[in-house]
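assembly run, all chains below
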Amino acid sequence: MANHDDTLHPGADPATGNASQVSSTTTKVRSSLTKRYAAERRFRWYGIVAIASSLGFLALLLTSIVIKGTPAFTQTFLQIEVTLTEDALGVAADATPAELRRANYAGVVKSAMRDRFPDVDGRSEKKALYGLVSTGADYQLAHRVAADPSLIGQTVSMWVPADDELGALVKRDADFTDPESLQTRLSDQQLGWASSLVEAGELDVRFNSTFFTNGDSREPELAGIRAALVGSAFTLLLTFALSFPIAVATAIYLEEFAPQNRWTDLVEVNINNLAAVPSIVFGLLGLAVFINFFHLPRSAPVVGGIVLSLMTLPTIIISSRASLKSVPPSIREAARGIGASPLQVVFHHVLPLAMPGILTGTIIGLAQALGETAPLLMIGMVAFIVDIPQSMTDAATVLPVQVFLWADSPERAFVEKTSAAIMVLLVFLIAMNAVAVFLRKRFERRW
Amino acid sequence: MSATTLILTTLVLAAASFLWGRRRSLEVAATAGGPRALHSLPVHYGAMVALWCALPALAIIVGWKLFEPIVVTGLLDEALPESIRAAGEKRVELYRNDIDNLVARGDVADIADPEKRQVAERLSSLRGIASAALAVLALAGALAGAALAARRIRPELRARASVERVVNFFLVSCASIAILTTLGIVLSVLFEAMRFFQQVGFLDFVTGTKWSPQTAIRVDQIGSSGSFGAVPLFVGTLLISFIAMIVAVPFGLMSAIYLAEYASRRTRNIVKPLLEILAGIPTVVYGFFAALTVAPALRSIGGDLGLSVSSESALAAGTVMGVMIIPFVSSLSDDVITAVPQSMRDGSYGLGATRSETVRKVVIPAALPGIVGGVLLAVSRAIGETMIVVMAAGLAANMTANPLEAVTTVTVQIVTLLTGDQEFDSAKTLAAFALGLMLFVVTLCLNVIALHVVRRYREQYD
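ok done. output:
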């Protein structure tokens, strides 16, 4: 079809034509052809532009997030020499673990900074100096001393997280000698100290393991996604445990056993409608029924899992039914022929053959549930969670909600954290979809 | 014994009963002339015994857990100090919660207040008795059930039939969950919305033009009486959905037409999954992108053109939402376009029409009902979409049709009303349910119409 001119009018020049030998209709058609072909090309281009711009937007979205998020996987560390004297810490060397936990680590870190810059004087200057170290330094020091109390009395050199603003500057290799160009909330004096630290090699950029081991924090350099990841895992586990058996049972009933009656019609209409109900309405259901009526704990993965499984049920049911339907009737007839009961036909023959398709649908449904945010906001899974949740009833948050929370934070360093959390979320989603595609390609039979 | 361990123990017992039942059926069969003498397979006898073991025990546990709090509270009230009981129901409830928290924290003996300690001790002893009694009862039920079933095993016992009845019942009840969910949504939303409409008139709600849901916390407070006119929210929702549709319909439809009519098989196989990725990205990611990249970009472009663009403009949220919906529109239209019979296209080509003329004059008109259905479904998605608007659209309830200003939507207001800490019976929280009811009804109508249109159309060509 690509070359109309040659195939349709061999020998004749369509544009000029030989007018005397053809009818007037043909003349009209020929004279309009140029325009029509131009319209054809334009139309084709509209399609290409539509696809290209959609994919362009996708590329823009992904690159912007990768560019913003990559810095979050590294962190700037500052080297300090801490002198752990009993006096400074306020505890004896043989203190109990409880006493050790209460020791004055912040003071030790501060004095280490004072020793590094001896000419700093005055309250506000000192405060500015302490601002270069993250409060995470205290925890890190406390951890080390708790693990090895014999350190008390020694001088230890350690790398501790730097403040997020300073960290960001070091990460992008900023030029500290030109404070005007930096656009930072650090003062010129702080920048001076920073540049001397850089020259001495006491600032270093390393892999940010904190991001994967910590819960949420008000300090960007200490905030991590561990709590959200664990919360997501609990929620998703419950979603799978509830929605998979219920959805498969429903699909089997509707596809293999349901009589043609009004009840069956009602169930089918309901499932189709539930698939299109806005997710936030499921959140309202969870809030009104499970939290206010059944008094299940707020903010807990239990409620989140139940709500998300109600939400993913229609997706899994619809794909499971399609998968069951694609198993040819001859399989059922053969099984019936050798004396299997209806249930044996389904559970021994039809279901195993339909399983790859069902699993594919389930994984896609779970991927949707993993990215879902709105219903979880309704049931209070939007709390500030520092501790890693230990069970289904602990207060927890999930990865997309963590993204939402961080996106709301005013600190600039949270932008990169948010993007990094999105990257982790997308990696999980891509992995799940890849598994689904693999299952479909590898095991699906065409009859 | 906690409920979880109890349930796990029951399941272990059920597994053991399965083995027991199977062995017993074989023993019974051995005396009657081998396994062939049995009516059902040995596994069916095993499954029957396992069900007789697990089901009564689980029923006991569930029933007990439903009634335990009521009974325990009743018994505990007798142990409450006289002064508390005289102070009325509210005070008693507070006191109960207090004791509950103390017990939950552990170490009842450490409680300083002797009065409270006594009540707390009573509570924990009651709970201890209850859980011990439950464990004994449930396990006894499990064992008795299993023993009873195992004793009934005879070669002529129709074990398969009874097991299959239970399985069938399970399948039917699973299928009914969809109806229960719909019922749950309708009842919960409707019930709370009714309570709201008792405080605020329904007409005021759907025709009022001022939305400021801050109600006074104290009676004497000034200036925050709260008004619940939802029209600005409806206008904002429609505006953003309209912008989204302006983006999604042409782009989605043109992509579908190109993929269905022009693209080679190879291009189609590559491009289609790529477009589907757009649909798989979580909405919170779109929201982040809209708020952090698109909105500032629009603002600076608008600044260059001399327009004042709000930093939470409807345009930014609507555009990004439109992009999110593109794959939805495109895959639905793709389905209906490919369902148009090839003979119609061939007829058009035979009359000398070009491809684009065929698409515009024959394929699209033939597919129009399906496309309209798909667009309606897309509209219902746009109306119900939450995260993009929560992150990128504003909270200010402006009534405007100007896409450069900030507007707010129904879903944004539901989220803001319900994520704070407030009492559950204030008009403010209940308003969220009234909005939810509106949302549910509107999207339900759109879906029903759309599904109807799509189905009618399919029947035409199949």
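Chain B has a mean pLDDT of 87.

The radius of gyration of chain B is 32 Å.

not gonna interpret more than that til we talk
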